[in-house]
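debug: dumping io for the single-chain case to check the tokenizer round-trip. Nothing else runs in this session.
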Amino acid sequence: MLDLKEKYIINKQQKPVAVQLDIKIFKRLEDVLEDYALTQYMKETDLEEKLTLNEAKTYYKRLKKNSVEVVLPEHSLKI
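debug: decoded output
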């Protein structure tokens, strides 16, 4: 288990309202949560139909061809 070294922020009624963490600990927690969420998503989609390599290439070519480029001042965003 991680040693979080958390600091509690309390209000005037002495009730905890926030937690302060070291940035390295926060980033580590963020990574762990992201990895967990990705694993859960992969488990959920495990039963879905899988594409062959050629089917995947065709699918992604179609996505690329149908994408729209949005140009904003000093920015370019491809959707």
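debug: round-trip ok. The beta strands are 7-10, 16-20, 69-72, 75-78.
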